[in-house]
Specification:
single chain, 202 residues, alpha+beta
C-alpha cells in the first residue's frame, strides 16, 4: 500500500504499520502450516511402510521432532495384551533423547515419575493432554489396542503446533492399525505353516 507523507498522520502511521505486521504474521503462519502439512504427508508415506510397532514408533518420534523443529526427549508406550485403559500393561516400545535407555521397560518402572501419571490420565480420558512442560498424545489403534506418546516439550505448545500434532497423530493411529493387521496376518501364516508341518509328520 502506498501513502504520501502528507497522508501519514501519527494515528494513520500506527494503523498502517499494525496492519502490515498482522498481514506478515498471517503469511508466516500460513507458510509454517504449509510446511507442517507437507511434513505430515511425507511422514505418513514413510510410516505406512513399517510392519512392526517398534519401527513405526521410532519413525513417529523422528517425524515429531522434524514437525516441531527441535530435538525431542520422548517415548512411545504401547499396550501388552487387550485390556483397554489398563496402563499397568503398557511398555515403552521406542524412545528418543534422554529417554532412550527406557526402551522395553514397563511404564510403571520408569524413573521419571511424571510419565506414568501423565500417560494414565491421557488413556483414561482417551484424549491428548497438553501440560505446562509436557505433552501426551493418545492413540487408539483398535478397540482393544491403545498407545500414547509422551513428549518432554519443556513448555506449553502453541495452538498451531497442537493442531498439526493432532493431524499427525490421526495418521499415526491409522498406520498403527495397519501394523496390527500385518502382525495378525503374519501370526496366522505362521500358525498355518505349523499345522501343515504337523500334518506332514502324521
Amino acid at each position: 500500500d502506498y501513502r504520501t507523507k502528507a497522508e501519514l498522520t501519527h494515528t494513520r502511521l500506527i494503523t498502517t504499520v499494525s496492519a502490515a505486521l498482522r498481514a506478515y504474521e498471517q503469511l508466516r503462519a500460513l507458510a509454517e502450516n504449509r510446511r507442517g502439512l507437507e511434513l505430515i504427508i511425507h511422514a505418513t508415506s514413510r510410516l505406512m511402510e513399517q510392519h512392526a510397532i517398534a519401527s513405526l514408533a521410532e519413525d513417529a518420534l523422528s517425524h515429531l521432532s522434524a514437525l516441531l523443529g527441535q530435538p525431542l526427549d520422548g517415548l512411545v508406550c504401547a499396550q501388552r495384551g487387550s485390556s483397554p485403559g489398563d496402563t499397568e500393561r503398557f511398555d515403552v516400545v521406542a524412545a528418543a533423547g534422554r529417554y532412550a535407555p527406557y526402551v522395553a521397560r514397563p511404564l510403571g518402572a520408569l524413573p521419571d515419575r511424571r510419565i506414568a501419571p501423565a500417560i494414565s490420565n491421557s488413556v483414561i480420558r482417551r484424549h491428548h493432554v497438553f501440560g505446562a512442560d509436557h505433552t501426551v498424545l493418545y492413540l487408539k489403534a483398535t478397540p482393544l489396542q491403545e498407545a500414547a506418546i509422551f513428549l518432554d516439550s519443556g513448555q506449553v505448545l502453541a495452538a498451531r503446533d497442537r493442531s498439526l500434532l493432532e493431524v499427525f497423530i490421526t495418521h499415526v493411529a491409522a498406520c498403527l492399525r495397519n501394523v496390527n493387521l500385518v502382525e495378525n496376518l503374519l501370526r496366522a501364516r505362521r500358525e498355518i505353516e505349523r499345522q501343515r508341518s504337523f500334518l506332514r509328520t502324521v
